[in-house]
Design brief:
The chain is α+β, with helices and mostly antiparallel strands. The chain has 13 helices and 25 strands. The strands form 5 sheets. Strands 6, 7, 8, 9, 10, 11 and 12 form a 7-stranded mixed sheet that branches.
Length: 456
C-alpha cells in the first residue's frame, strides 16, 4: 500500500483526467451553477432566531449548529470573549480511492459551499454533517454515503477524528476517513478520479482545493506503514524529506512534545465557559449580525442563500465573516540530513482539550497577540522573499465561514541563523507529525493543511 501511495503522490502526468481537464471541469461546473448569496437581517429569517432566554442564535429545529458566547477567565478576570459555533456532532470527511491500471486514484468532488469565495472547490468524495446524512434538513442523501456507512467491507487507510478551527468552533471535530475499494463505482458528473500528485499540483492554485480535502490527505499514515526503501526514495526530489518521512528516531521528539502539552493541560489555570451572548460585554448583538466594539478577527452576519447542486437549494443561515486574510506559516530546515519543521504548541479558545500543535505562525489579519522572536523572524524572511517553497491563498470551511481565505506559507531557513526557541516551539520530523495525526486532537487544522501541500 505504501508504494502505491508514494507512486500516486509522484504521478502528475498520463492520468485518467489530466490536471488541465480537472481545472476546466471545475470552471465549467462553476459557470453552470446559479448562486445567490445576499446579506439579510435575522428578523427576515423564518428559520433562524435569537433565543434571548438561552442567549443563543439557533433555528426552529435545534439542528445544524448554534452560536453562543464564550469567555476565557483567569481567577475573576475575563481574558478573552467572543461568539463561537457549537456543532455537537461529528460529520464525514471521506475519500474513496481505488487502484486503476496500476495507479492509486482518489475520487474527488466539485462541491459548492455557500461561503466559498469562488463557489466550487475540489472536495472529498463525501463531505457531510451528521444532520446532512441523517436528513434532518429534509434533503437528498449524500452520494457515496453507503461506502462509509459500510466501511468494514473495504480497506481502511485513514480513520481519525480531527479538530476543526478552534478559534471559531467550540470543540468541533470531524471524521477524516480514506477507504480503498476494489469494486466498480458509478462516477457521477460531480466527481472525478485524480492522483495524489495531481491534488498537490491543484493546491498551488488559490482557493481551488478546499480545507476538508487538505485535512483528510494530511492524515495519510506514510510513516507508520514501512521503514522506507531505496525503491521508494527514487520518487523523491527532496531526499531530506524522504528521510523525514521515514525517520525512526521519534521517541525524543514525541516525549518532549507530549511533556510540554501535558504540562500545559495539567497546570494551565485559565478556564473557558459558555455564556449567553448578552454577557459578551465587548460585542453588539443586533439584527444585522454580531460585531465586536473593538477590532477583532471576525464578525457574524446573516445571509439568504440559493445554490444549485446542493441537497437543499434555498435556505438562510449565519456565517462567520473574517476581517482580512490570516497568515499560516511553517518554517522548515534540514538538520543532520533530515528535513525538520518548526511547530508551535498553540492554545485556542474552542480547542477540544486546551492545546494542540500548530504551525510556526498562526496570525489573524487582526493580530491580537504580541509577536515573539520566531514570528518576527518569519515575517522578516517573508518580506525579503527568502526561501519560500509554498505561498498560496486557500479557503477555510465554506459551510460556516463567509469568503474566509488565508495565506499558507512554507519557508526554508536552512541558511539562516535561528535564535533560541521560545517556550512551546519544537523542531520535529514529518514522521513525528505523521504519528501525531494518527491520534485524535494533537495536530491542529492549520498545521495539517500546511503539511498537505508538500510534494515529493
Amino acid at each position: 500500500m505504501l508504494q502505491m501511495l508514494i507512486q500516486s503522490w509522484a504521478k502528475t502526468e498520463n492520468t485518467i483526467n489530466s490536471t488541465e481537464e480537472i481545472i476546466d471541469w471545475v470552471k465549467k461546473t462553476n459557470d453552470s451553477l446559479v448562486v445567490n448569496i445576499d446579506a439579510n437581517k435575522l428578523s427576515d429569517s423564518s428559520f433562524w432566531f435569537h433565543d434571548e432566554e438561552k442567549g443563543i442564535i439557533t433555528n426552529n429545529n435545534n439542528s445544524f449548529f448554534l452560536i453562543q458566547g464564550i469567555q476565557v477567565k483567569k481567577n475573576d478576570e475575563i481574558l478573552m470573549e467572543q461568539p463561537i459555533i457549537l456543532q455537537n456532532e461529528i460529520g464525514y470527511l471521506g475519500v474513496i480511492c481505488k487502484e486503476i491500471k496500476g495507479t492509486l486514484y482518489f475520487l474527488m468532488q466539485a462541491k459548492i459551499e455557500p461561503g466559498n469565495i469562488n463557489k466550487v472547490q475540489i472536495s472529498p468524495t463525501i463531505q457531510a454533517t451528521k444532520s446532512n446524512f441523517t436528513r434532518k434538513h429534509g434533503g437528498d442523501i449524500p452520494a457515496y454515503l453507503e461506502y462509509f456507512m459500510n466501511v468494514n467491507e473495504h480497506m481502511v487507510i485513514v480513520d481519525q477524528i480531527q479538530s476543526e478551527q478552534s478559534s471559531r468552533f467550540y470543540k468541533k471535530r470531524n471524521r477524516n476517513i480514506i477507504i480503498k475499494v476494489n469494486t466498480d463505482i458509478e462516477i457521477l458528473p460531480s466527481h472525478r478520479w485524480m492522483t495524489l500528485g495531481q491534488m498537490k499540483q491543484l493546491m498551488k492554485y488559490d482557493n481551488l482545493v478546499n480545507m476538508d480535502t487538505r485535512t483528510v490527505l494530511s492524515c495519510l499514515p506514510y510513516s507508520l506503514m514501512d521503514k522506507g526503501s531505496e525503491a521508494l526514495s527514487i520518487y523523491f526530489k527532496d531526499s531530506a524529506l524522504y528521510r523525514s518521512i521515514f525517520e525512526r528516531n521519534n521517541m525524543v521528539e514525541l516525549t518532549v512534545v507530549y511533556n510540554y502539552i501535558n504540562n500545559y493541560k495539567m497546570f494551565d489555570d485559565t478556564r473557558e465557559r459558555l455564556v449567553p451572548l448578552s454577557e459578551l460585554g465587548k460585542w453588539d448583538i443586533i439584527d444585522e449580525g454580531i460585531h465586536c466594539k473593538e477590532k477583532y478577527s471576525f464578525s457574524v452576519k446573516y445571509f439568504d442563500i440559493e445554490v444549485e447542486g446542493r441537497e437543499v437549494r434555498k435556505w438562510t443561515q449565519p456565517l462567520f465573516k473574517a476581517e482580512g486574510i490570516a497568515t499560516f506559516g511553517l518554517l522548515t530546515s534540514i538538520r543532520d540530513g533530515v528535513r525538520k519543521f518548526l511547530v508551535h504548541a498553540e492554545p485556542e479558545i474552542g480547542c477540544f482539550d486546551k492545546i494542540e500543535l500548530g504551525s510556526t505562525i498562526q496570525r489573524e489579519a487582526v493580530c491580537m497577540k504580541k509577536e515573539d522572536i520566531i514570528q518576527k523572524l518569519f515575517l522578516q524572511q517573508y518580506e525579503r522573499r527568502k526561501g519560500i517553497l509554498y505561498d498560496v491563498i486557500l479557503s477555510e470551511e465554506g459551510g460556516r465561514f463567509y469568503h474566509e481565505q488565508n495565506r499558507n506559507i512554507i519557508m526554508d531557513v536552512c541558511n539562516e541563523k535561528i535564535p533560541d526557541l521560545p517556550e512551546g516551539y519544537f523542531w520535529v520530523s514529518y514522521s513525528t507529525l505523521n504519528i501525531l495525526t494518527q491520534v485524535n486532537n494533537c495536530v491542529n487544522i492549520q498545521l495539517r493543511n500546511l503539511l498537505s501541500l508538500l510534494e515529493v
